[in-house]
Automatic annotation (TrEMBL):
N-acetyltransferase domain location: 1-45
Domain of life: Eukaryota
Organism of this sequence: Apostasia shenzhenica
Protein's recorded name: Acetyltransferase
Keywords: Transferase
Keyword Transferase part of the UniProt annotation: yes
GO molecular function, one term: transferase activity
Source lineage: Eukaryota, Viridiplantae, Streptophyta, Embryophyta, Tracheophyta
């Protein structure tokens, strides 16, 4: 597991401990980490981000 994965696990663990949801705005989280670790998808905020444009 690389540094990015360790950082993601720490962030998702923090969210889990504090009953929070994560909004993955980083492509690594959305496209690599979550597909490889679907157990963390429970803590993903499902509402789509609205563009400010």
């Amino acid at each position: 597991m690389g540094i990015a994965s360790h950082l993601c696990v720490a962030a998702f663990s923090h969210a889990q401990r504090h009953s929070m949801l994560v909004r993955p705005t980083c492509s690594y989280v959305a496209e690599t980490f979550l597909p490889r670790n679907p157990n963390w998808s429970t803590f993903v905020h499902k509402e789509e981000l609205k563009s400010s444009m």
